[in-house]
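This section describes the prediction task in plain terms. A model, or a person checking by hand, is given the sequence of a single protein chain and must write out its three-dimensional structure as a string of tokens. No templates, partner chains or ligands are provided. The sample shown here is typical of the held-out split.
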Amino acid sequence: MDCRLDELAFDIASSAGWYSAIAGVLAGFALLAVLLPLDHEADGDHERSSEPVVIMTCAFFSLLLLSFSYAILAGRIDQDDQALAAHEQLLLGASMGLSSLLLLLALYALLVTYGQNREVFRPARQVILVTTGFAGPLVVVALQFSNALDIERVRLAATESPECSFGGMPNGVWVNLAITLVALAVIGTLALARHRIPARVGAASAVARGVLGFTVVVVLWSALALPLLPSDVVSSPVFEHVTLLVTTLATTVVAATAWAAR
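The expected answer:
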């Protein structure tokens, strides 16, 4: 059976160059937003007032690291590096999505700190909350599944007699799809049960530190470990499925935190 993935050609290096530029621009916005609390008086709750600054600071450093990492990934134009590039794209893509959600979390936390004008921002805060807790995580998970398809395509290209099953797709695609659908279902369930999730001050800043730590681990892994691993190990199904599972789990944690930070 012919594999339909053969038709999904994708230039990772070209896309990574654009992502590097976008991450750099977003890092600039995050750095500027760190200074926003200076132009108004807080409502007296110093813990809540400091939260958006912590989140934006974590987002800034995370996006700055991603800008450098994507720039390096954009230079992987050798065909022998495609397995490494596809795996790195999946990891960096997850970190990029989570860092972008941090910007929304920080904006929500910042608008809450405004005193008399807090009610004016209520409709905007609701939009931000739904986007951060539901719509944004759905998009991030969907993009992670799309990035995982590139790993499948690279593995098929390295196989002399690729075996494809239902729908002209390898079995690994259906495993990835199952992981993705479960993650989407969990995110949807969190949105439906959002009123049962206890609100916690400091939850957003805690997850922001976690996202920054995740980005640091991804950058170190990409710089130190991936170049030393064989191509067949990097593009193996185990690596692919575990990576997708971990990144989707991280996305659901951020989604839950968004509702807890309301």
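For orientation: The helical segments are 12-34, 46-73, 82-112, 122-157, 171-192, 203-225, 231-234, 237-260.
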